[in-house]
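In the design runs reported in the main text, the only information available to the sequence generator was the tokenized backbone. The following block is the verbatim input for one such run; it is reproduced so that readers can re-run the procedure and compare outputs position by position.
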């Protein structure tokens, strides 16, 4: 794995923050994916019809699946979160799967996964405060008894870090394994293997990309969505 190059260093509240090439790459990829999703959303939602065509049918199937997922795990009274859960799912799925195109997934960076986890954490606790009031929210930390206060506070804080590290660790491991395979194939070279060297170079990474970028990327996206939904409901109803 290449060492990150520091592009710029600046002070913030006494802390020295460094902008690296890897961080810049991650930001650029994320903005590119966001721009892509906005363009696609505008295109597919234009000229919606009462009798859907194939394009609209696919979109409606996706929305229905997300709505049913929210209904089963949170209840119909939480349908207001369908747009949020759907957006998180589609965006995170693309972030995880971008490695198929030989682009390093932004979710292999701790700063990216921490940012996503902070959004989930803020929604979970912000909605609970909005629904129950600040006083009732604070009392919820003592549920079901006052002795549980330290554990409940710890559980709430740990949620942020486990959500961050679970996604980061799984995607990073997959990225490192694929990088090592490419490095090994490059070191092996084609001079000894001749024609078969090119076959190994092309064929060997394919199943790894399928597993780490597609399968594991989809699994981690689903887990992130599920944990967000479950915690929104649980914290709100405590």
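Verbatim output:
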């Amino acid at each position: 794995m290449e060492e990150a190059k520091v592009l710029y260093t600046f002070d913030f509240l006494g802390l020295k923050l460094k902008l690296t090439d890897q961080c810049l790459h991650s930001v650029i990829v994320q903005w590119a994916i966001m721009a892509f999703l906005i363009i696609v959303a505008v295109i597919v939602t234009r000229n919606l019809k009462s009798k859907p065509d194939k394009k609209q049918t696919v979109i409606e199937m996706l929305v229905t699946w997300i709505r049913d997922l929210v209904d089963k795990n949170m209840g119909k009274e939480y349908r207001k979160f369908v747009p949020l859960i759907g957006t998180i799912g589609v965006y995170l799925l693309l972030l995880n799967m971008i490695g198929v195109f030989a682009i390093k997934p932004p979710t292999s960076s701790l700063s990216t996964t921490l940012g996503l986890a902070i959004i989930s954490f803020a929604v979970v606790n912000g909605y609970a405060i909005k629904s129950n009031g600040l006083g009732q929210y604070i009392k919820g930390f003592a549920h079901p008894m006052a002795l549980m206060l330290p554990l409940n506070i710890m559980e709430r804080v740990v949620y942020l870090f486990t959500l961050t590290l679970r996604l980061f660790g799984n995607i990073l491991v997959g990225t490192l394994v694929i990088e090592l395979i490419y490095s090994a194939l490059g070191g092996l070279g084609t001079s000894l293997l001749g024609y078969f060297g090119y076959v190994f170079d092309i064929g060997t990474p394919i199943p790894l990309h399928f597993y780490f970028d597609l399968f594991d990327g989809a699994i981690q996206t689903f887990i992130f969505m599920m944990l967000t939904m479950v915690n929104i409901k649980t914290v709100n109803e405590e």
